[in-house]
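#structure-requests
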Amino acid sequence: MRYRDLETGTFLTRDPIGYIDGPNRYCYVRCNPIMMFDPFGLKVEDMDEDTQEWWDDHKGDQSYQDLYDYLDDPDDEFYTIRYDMENESWSITLSAKDASGESTDITFWEIHKFQNFESDEYQAHDARFMNTAVDFFRNTDSYTGGQAAGMPGSKLEPDMLKSMALTESGGTAGDPKGQWWTDPMTINGSDPGKYKPDLSPAGDASANIKRATEYLTRKGFGDSGQPIRNRPAGTFDGWKTALEKYNMNKSIKSDGRYHYQHYPEKILERAGNPTKHVPLEIR
């Protein structure tokens, strides 16, 4: 077995088998760690057949290429993409150095097709949601608006973002000009929001998803959604509370509760149970 230096992305020793995987005997998986792996440092193993077919179907989409380029950037982290055909999901695993300097898997993101939302249009933003979740992990402070001592961990589930977007604008997915295609989380809605992140181009879905996630995160610290640097002692009250405050629709539902109380429950139920149909609600 050989060991890797995650700062350089290379093995510490030469490949004892020789040049079987290319001219650079120190290079890890032909310098393509996102799509290949080499668990023992002796022979590159390509992605499995299902993942290869899935990637071939999606690599022409700019949002997937943007995700690939983003994952390929760090010098001290390695990401691996896998597709699970049985569960109709795909995932990203992050490996980095542990305290002893060894390579170890430290976190994992997965995104699913939701029951009764299996058609292609509902998967159109999956790479954007995944990109945002990874970026949240790497740059949490940019989402909170400052260092947040009260932010427990920095894991954001892409399924929650996808479920939220479906609730916000999924009903327009069948319309090529619908909000689903440009602003799926409706950050550019009618409420101007004093502390909403700066406006992005109206048709830039990637930028709008990131802006919406920033605002959602900050709503978890308080009603105003202002950056945490304005109140460094603030604590994060959880994603359920953040979702409530993001919505704040006070129309009354049949059970006498406000719409904004139903809103996070449906989003989190769908995200946590992708094989269960959780219908969209009309506001």
